[in-house]
Amino acid sequence: MRRALLLAALLALVAAPGALARGISSNWAGWVVVSPNHTRKFTAVSGSWRVPTVNCEGSAAQSASAYWIGLGGDSERAPGLEQIGTDSDCEHGHPMYYAWYELIPAESVPLRLRIEPGDLISAFTSVRGHRVMLRITDVTRRRHILIHRYAPSVDTSSAEWIVEAPLSCTRPGSCAATRLANFGSVDFLSAHATVGRRTASIGWRRWRSSSIELEQAPVRDASGNIVISADPTPHPTRRGGFIVYWHSHPAPVEARLN
Hints:
17-stranded mixed sheet; Jelly Rolls; two-stranded antiparallel ribbon; mainly beta; globular
């Protein structure tokens, strides 16, 4: 299965607590929060989203998009990442929708939870020591899966709500982001995280919140060389809601493929 380590060193979190910073990644779009000076660790993260419908026409026939919440993994040096989510992928032109969890450095594990486009998904992850609890619920279908695992490597220095172009690895250490599937847009709702006894949404003034824009290297398309990107709305709602939009535009002349 695909691994989801961050490819780009994207977040230089130098803003004051409560400020909104922005980063750029080759495979993540969404929001990340850390505590001031990384002095306190997160114990839980939660959020909801609606499963988007992917467009698998033409050159997008082989593409993927993952939607997840997680703890850790904010930097390339992070020892772990505890995450759970869903995928909306295109395999040989056919859409595929499924749920999964992942405790990096282990690979992702598919879950037996039937999901369909438009379903409302709710997810929760918590970490106590090396004990990880993950829960995903298809609110629309009233079904859920609860997972308890021991993770040798954990990271709780950050909390994330992410759209991802998953990594495809030909061998250990040789990975590249897949083409981001055309999902149109996806709504994240009630994005909250917990530090100590405090649970708050993305924009809590005591946290450093950073939005992440995804931009992939130029690829060939029927219309020429294009750049695929995704970006979140610049300000989450007070309840922790935001939208991530998929984009495709012509590659700049200097960046076009030969």
